[in-house]
Amino acid sequence: MDQKGIGMTQEPLLKARGLVKRYGKVTALNNCDFDLMPGEILAVIGDNGAGKSSLIKALSGAVQPDEGEITLDGKPVRFASPLEARGHGIECVYQTLAMSPALSIADNMFMGRELRKPGIMGSVFRQLDRPAMEKFARDKLTELGLMTIQNINQAVETLSGGQRQGVAVARAAAFGSKVVILDEPTAALGVKESRRVLELIRDVRSRGIPIILISHNMPHVFEVADRIHIHRLGRRLCVIRPQDYSMSDAVAFMTGAKVPDEVAEAA
Amino acid sequence: MDQKGIGMTQEPLLKARGLVKRYGKVTALNNCDFDLMPGEILAVIGDNGAGKSSLIKALSGAVQPDEGEITLDGKPVRFASPLEARGHGIECVYQTLAMSPALSIADNMFMGRELRKPGIMGSVFRQLDRPAMEKFARDKLTELGLMTIQNINQAVETLSGGQRQGVAVARAAAFGSKVVILDEPTAALGVKESRRVLELIRDVRSRGIPIILISHNMPHVFEVADRIHIHRLGRRLCVIRPQDYSMSDAVAFMTGAKVPDEVAEAA
Amino acid sequence: ADSACIITKTDTNPFFVKMKEGATAKAQELGITLKSYAGKIDGDHEGQVAAVEACIADGAKGILITASDTKAIVDSVKSARDAGLLVIALDTPLDPVDAADATFATDNFKAGELIGQWAKATLGDAAAEAKIAMLDLGISQPSVDVLRDQGFLQGFGIELGDPEKWGDETDPRIVGHEVTSGNEEGGLTAMESLLAKDPGINLVYTINEPAAAGAYEALKAVGREKDVLIVSIDGGCPGVQNVKDGVIGATAQQYPLEMAAKGIEAIAAFAKDGTKPAPTEGKDFTDTGVTLVTDKPVEGIESIDSAKGAELCWG
Amino acid sequence: MSSDAKAAVSYEEGLKGASEKVAEFQEHKSALKRLQHWLHMTPSAVPMIVLVVALIVFGLLSPNFFKAVTLSTILQQIAIVGILGCAQSLVILTAGIDLSVGAIAVFSSVLMGQFTFRYGIPAPLAIAAGLALGTAMGFANGWLVAKVKLPPFIVTLGTWQIILAANYIYSANETIRSSEIAATAPALQFWGNSIQPGGVKVLYAVFLMVALVAILAYVLRHTAWGRHVYAVGDDPDAAELAGVRTKRILIQVYALGGLFCAIAGWVMIGRFGSVSPSASTGQLGNIQSITAVVIGGISLFGGRGSIVGMFFGALIVGVFEMGLKMVGTDPQWTFFLIGMLIILAVAVDQWIRKASA
Amino acid sequence: MSSDAKAAVSYEEGLKGASEKVAEFQEHKSALKRLQHWLHMTPSAVPMIVLVVALIVFGLLSPNFFKAVTLSTILQQIAIVGILGCAQSLVILTAGIDLSVGAIAVFSSVLMGQFTFRYGIPAPLAIAAGLALGTAMGFANGWLVAKVKLPPFIVTLGTWQIILAANYIYSANETIRSSEIAATAPALQFWGNSIQPGGVKVLYAVFLMVALVAILAYVLRHTAWGRHVYAVGDDPDAAELAGVRTKRILIQVYALGGLFCAIAGWVMIGRFGSVSPSASTGQLGNIQSITAVVIGGISLFGGRGSIVGMFFGALIVGVFEMGLKMVGTDPQWTFFLIGMLIILAVAVDQWIRKASA
Ligand SMILES: Nc1ncnc2c1ncn2[C@@H]1O[C@H](COP(=O)(O)OP(=O)(O)OP(=O)(O)O)[C@@H](O)[C@H]1O
Ligand SMILES: Nc1ncnc2c1ncn2[C@@H]1O[C@H](COP(=O)(O)OP(=O)(O)OP(=O)(O)O)[C@@H](O)[C@H]1O
Ligand SMILES: O[C@@H]1[C@H](O)[C@H](O)CO[C@H]1O
Ligand SMILES: [Mg+2]
Ligand SMILES: [Mg+2]
C-alpha cells in the first residue's frame, strides 16, 4: 500500500470498493466500485436515477454508505460530514447547489472562509472586508461569462437558475485543493456559460487537481474527459477512454442497449 | 380584433406587448414583446439571466408585470395567480418544478385533480383511488423512459434530480389543454429521457396544443422548434425560423456577438 | 377630578373583580377617577411594578394594591410614596406592613386556621387517622397560598416544617399536595390524581371555592361526595351557596368590598386634606375580618350559617 | 429540422434497443430490516413505543398504577387536550401554529353556558351557537393567515389575547355552578356521562376523542382534501403552483380547528361540571396541545406526521403526569421531571429513527 | 477529443465576439421608488414607522403621555424584554425558538442573590457565577438542539419547566429584600442606578440594553460569525455543505442567549430592587420576547430580519402598554387591544411591504 513509491499515476487518488447504499426499499448503490487517478478529469455518466449523485455523495461525506470502503491517497477514510471531506481537500458542487437563499452572492461564495478587513478592524473587531469579497465574486463571475448579474449584492434566491449554478461552480473551482467534484455543473447553464465552465475544468486540472464531472451532455463529456465511468443500475458498468469508443457506444452502454465487451466476458 | 374569422394561424394565441418587470434594482423584463401562434412549438433561448423565466412567469400568472399587457385569444387577460392561468388552460412546468417534497409521486402528479374511488366510497366518503392514480403515474413515467424509479410511492424529495424533472414534465403534458409552457424541461435529464421529452413535445403539438419551450440545448431547439424567440437583456431581440439560420447564428445573436439584420436596421 | 389607581393581582379571579367593582362604585360616589390595573397571571410582580410606575407618571393621588410579591413590591411602593402618593395595601399585607400607608386586609393565616380547627373538631376522633388532600394554588407558592395552607395545617394540629413553604411536612395523614391554579379545572384534575394515589381520602383542603367545586366533581364521579369533607376559603356568593348545598363543609369568608370602599375613602380624605388612615387598635393593619361560614357549627369556634353568609357574600 | 442539429445529436443512435425494464434489486428481508422499515413508514410507531415503556415503568414503580380506574382516569384527563390536539395537528400540518386553541375552547364553553342561563336559550340551540361561534373564531384566524398573509404565530398570539379578554369581559368572570347546569340544562354536561363496564367508568368524552382522532386520520390519509393539507404545509408555493387552492385550504383548516376547539369547550362543561371563564385551559391549552403534537412526531415545519401520533403524544403526557403523582413526587419535582421527560421522549424518538435510518 | 464530440458543438462558433459587459438598465429615480427601495432594504424601517404612529396617537389621547418621565419610564420598562429579545432574536435567526429565556433570567438572578446571601460569596463573584450558570443553561439547550438534534421548541419547552421548577426548589420560594441587598451587596443592584439629566431619571439598564442591541447588530452584520448565524437559519443543510460548522454555531447561539438572559437576570435585580423567584418574567418572558421579535419583523422561519427591528418591536409593545394605561383602559380591555395591535402592527408591515414590492 506504499503508493507514494510507485508513482502518481499507478495508484488511484480516491478509490471505492463495494459501496452499497439503500434508502428504505430503494437501492441507490449496489456494490459499486470507483477510481479517480491523480490529475485526471473523470466523467461519470448514466441514466437518471442510476446512482451517480448517490455515489459522489458517498465519496464526499454527504451520505454514509451502508457497506463498502473508501480510500484517499491509499488510506482508508470515513467522512462523517462534507466538512470533514473538505478538510481533506475534497470540494463538491452538489446537484442541489447548497446555498443560503437569503444571503448575497458574496456571502455565499465566501461562506466559511470570509475575508476580514486589514488592521485592527479585522483582527480585533473582526469586521468583514465586504468590498474585497464583492470584487473577488464579481471577477469570478465575469470569468464564467455571467454578465447578466447586475447587482452583486443580490440575494441568491433572486438569481436565475443558471446564475445560481454559476455561483456554485465558481466557488468550488476557486477554492478546491485536492479533488473537485461537479454534479451536473452545466445543467442550467447557457451556451456561453457552459463553455466557460469547460475551460474552467481544464484550468483546474492544469493546477494538478483531478476532477470528477457528472454530466448528461455527451459532447462535453467526450470533449474534456480523460476517462469515462459509466454508471448503470447503481454500479460501475465499465470505464472507457473517449478515444476508444464513440458517443453512440457510450449511450448504448449506459442505457443497456449494448453490453461492453469486458462485462460480457465476465458475465 | 375578431381573430376568429381571420383563421387560426394569423393571429397569435398568446400575445404580450411592452412587458416590464423590475425587482428592486434589477430589471428582469425591459419592455418585452411576445407572440405564440396556435399549434406551434415556440422555443425561447437566451443567456442565463436574460429574463426567459421571468417572461413565462409573467405569462402564466406567477408574477405580475409592472407594465405591459397580455392577451389570450385576443382578449386582454391579467392572471393574479398560476391557478387562474390554469383555469384558462395554461399549464406550466417551472424551472423550480413546484412539487411537494414530502408527498409521493402519484400525490404530486394528481395534486388538485385527484381521482376518487368508484361507488359510495368515493362519492360519500370521498376516498382516493390510490391504485388507479399509481398506475397512471407509473404509465406516464414509463412513457418518458424513467425506468429507474423503483418505488412509485417514494416521496418526491427522495428522487434523483432528473427523475423529479421527469415527473413534472409528465404532469404538464398529461393535463395541459390550451398552452403548455416548459422551462428547461430537459436540463437535468439523461440522453434517453431527453429524447422522450422531445417526442412528448411533438405529441402535444399533434394534439393541436401550442408549446413554449425554454432551453439551452441548441440541437434540441433547432430540431423541434417551429420558431425561435431570441431573448437578450430582458427583451425579445428577434424571432427566427430554424430553417433560415444556423445554430451558430442563433448563439451569436443571443450572446451579442452579432446583431440580426432586422434589429440592425431598426436601430 | 382627583384620580386614583387600583392594582390587583389578576382581574380574572372573581374576588378581584368584585373588589374592583366595589372600589369603582365608591369612587364614583366620591367623584374620583379610578383607573384599574392587574397582573397578567397570578404572581405577576413585574406587571404590578409597571402599573405603579404608570400611576406615578399619570399623577394619581393614591394607589390601592393587592401585592403579588409582598416583599418585592416594597421598593416600588416607596418610590410612589416618595412621589407623594398615598399607598394602601388591600387584601394582602406588605412585608414589612408599614411599607404601605395603611392596610385593609384579611388575615390569611387565621382564615386557614379557622377551617383547620373546624375540620378537626368535625372529624372528632377520626382526625387522628384522617387522610388529607391539600389542593394549593401554584408551584411558585405565593404568600396567600402558603399562609392559608399552613394556617389550615396548624389549625388541624399538624406539625409544620418551615412555615414559609408548604410541602415539607412529614405527617403521614397528608396524602399529598397538588396545585390547582385556583379554578375548577385545576381542582378537578388535582383531586383525581390524589384519589388515584389514595382512594381513602376523607378531608380536602382547598385554596379557594372554585378549586373546591372542582374537587367535589371528582369526588362525585367516584361516588364519594357524601363521605368526604371539603373546606375552603373566600366566602363568595357561589361558595356560600355551595356551603348551603353541602358541597363545601365550611369556608372562611373575607370582605373585599369593604376593603375597597375603605381604601377609596382614605384616598379621598388624603386628597382633600392630607390625612392618613389609622390602623385598627392594637394591630399594625386594619383587619377587615374573616368569618367561618358553615351550617354545621362546632363547639368553641365562632361561625355564621350559610343564610347569614349569603347576606354578607361578595358576588 | 436543420441538418447541423441532426448531426449534433447523432450519438443518440446508441439509444436503439435501450432497456425498458423498471430497475429492481433483491431485498434483504431480515426481521430487523423489516422492523426498521416499518418504523420509518409509520410515524406514530415511536410515540407508541415510548408510551408502552412509560406504562411499564410506572407500573413497576407504583402498585396502584395498573388499575383500570387509574387508566380510565388518565384517558379522561387527556380528553380535552386530545381534542385540542386534533385542531392543533391540522394547523401544524400546514406549517402554522395555533396559540388560541385553549382560549377558543374556554370562550365557547362560556358562550354556551351564558346563552343558556343569561338569555334562556334552550341548551341544544346554545350549544349549536357556541360551536358556530368557535368555528367563526377559527375562521378569523384562517382569514388573517391566508388572506392578509400574517404569520400564524402572530395572528394566534393576538387572537389568544383578544379571545381570552373577550371571554372575561363578556362573562364578567362569573362561574355557572355545576348543580344549576345539572338541574336546568343537562345537555351541556352530555359528554360527562359515562358507561361503566365492569365498574370502570369511561366518559363519553373519551369515546368522542377517539372517534374524532379516527375520523381525522381517515380524512388526512384518504381524501384529496387531506393530501392538500399536507401539500400546503410542505411547500405552499409549490402547492399553489400545482393547483391547490392554498388560501381556501388554510381558511378551512383554521375554521375546522375552531370547531374542534368549540367541541372541546362543550366537553369541558361535561367534564368539569361547571362553566368557568378562568379555566386554566385558556392559558395552558395551547402549550399542552403543542406538546402532544410534537411528542407525537408531527413536524413543526409542517407537512409531516400523523394525527395518531398526536394521540399517543397526549397519552404519553397524561401517563407521565399521573404516574409521577402516584409515585408521590412533590408538585415542584413533578414539574421538573415532566420537563425532563418531554425532552427524553423526543430524544428517544430521534434515537430510534437514527438507528433505523 | 473525439471528432464527433467536436462536430456536435460546432455551433459554439457563434460565441466569438460575445459581449463582455455587465448588463445595466436605466433606473427611475423617483422619490417614491427610492422610498420603496429603502423600505425593502431596511427590515427595521416598518416597525419604526409603526412606533412613531403609536407615539403620536397616544400623545394626542393622553395629555400626560408626552412627558420626559413617561418616555423614560417606558424605556426602563422594556429594558428586560429588550435584553431577553436579543437572546430570542439570535435563536430565532437560526430558525429556532427559546421558550426558556425568562426562566433562565429569573433563575440566574436567584442564583446571584442566593450565592451572595446564603453562602456569603462576594457579590461580584456571585454575579460572575450567575452569568456563567445562565450561559451553561443556554449551552444545555444548544447541545440538545445541535447534537441530539431535538426540535428547539421541545427542548426549550422542557428546560423552561425544568429551570423554573429548579428555581423554586432551590430558592425555597424566598424573596431577598431590596433593603438587605442595598446594605450588603449593592453590586447586585448596579443596573438600577441612574443618571438624571434635567431631572429625568434614566437607568443604567437602559444604556445597557441599547449597547447590547448595538453590539449585536454589528456582530450580526459585519462579522463572519454573524453571517453564519443567518446561513444556519436560512438553510442548515446548505450551510453545512457550504462549510459552516452548523452545530458549533447553534451551540454558541444558545449559550450566548443564556448569557444574555443571565444579564437580564442581573438587570432584574437592579430594576426591581429585590430578588424574587416567582418573578413573572419566568412565565411570561418568552412570550413577551417573542412578541418583540416578531413585531420587529424577524421571521420565525429563520435567516431574515434584524436585531434593531426587535428593539423597535419591544418599544412598540412598551408604548402600547403604557399608552393604554394612561388613557385609563381597563386591564382586560388593555389585553384585548394589545392583541389587536399585535396583529395590526404586523399587518401594516405586511401591507407596506406589499405596496412597495
Ligand atoms: N433520500 C433518498 N431516499 C430514497 N431514495 C433515494 C434517496 N436519494 C436517492 N434515492 C434514489 O436512489 C436512486 C439514485 O439516485 P441518484 O440521485 O443517485 O441518481 P442520479 O444518477 O444522480 O440521477 P440524475 O441523473 O437524475 O441526477 C434513485 O432511484 C432515487 O430515487
Ligand atoms: N425575485 C427576484 N428578485 C430580484 N431579481 C430577480 C428575481 N427573479 C429574477 N431576478 C433577476 O432577473 C433576471 C432575469 O432572471 P430570469 O430567471 O428570468 O432569467 P433566465 O433567462 O430564466 O435565466 P436562466 O437561463 O439562468 O434560467 C436575472 O438577472 C435575475 O437575477
Ligand atoms: O384573597 C384572594 C382570594 O381569595 C383569591 O381567591 C386568591 O387570591 C387571594 O389574594
Ligand atoms: Mg444526480
Ligand atoms: Mg430561467
TrEMBL record, chains A, B:
Domain ABC transporter: 14-258
UniProt organism field: Paracoccus aminovorans
InterPro entries documented for this protein: AAA+_ATPase, ABC_carbohydrate_import_ATPase, ABC_transporter-like_ATP-bd, P-loop_NTPase
Entry's Gene Ontology molecular function annotations: ATP binding; ATP hydrolysis activity
Keywords, ordered alphabetically: ATP-binding, Nucleotide-binding
Superkingdom of source: Bacteria
Protein name: Mannose ABC transporter ATP-binding protein /fructose ABC transporter ATP-binding protein /ribose ABC transporter ATP-binding protein
TrEMBL record, chains D, E:
InterPro entries recorded: ABC_transp_permease
Name the record gives this protein: Mannose ABC transporter membrane protein /fructose ABC transporter membrane protein /ribose ABC transporter membrane protein
Transmembrane segments: 45-66, 78-107, 119-140, 152-170, 202-220, 249-269, 308-327, 333-352
Membrane topology, as annotated: Multi-pass membrane protein
Compartments it resides in: Cell membrane
Keywords recorded for this protein, A-Z: Cell membrane, Membrane, Transmembrane, Transmembrane helix
One Gene Ontology term of the molecular function aspect: transmembrane transporter activity
GO cellular component, one term: plasma membrane
Presence of keyword Iron: no
CDD domains (alphabetical): TM_PBP1_transp_AraH_like
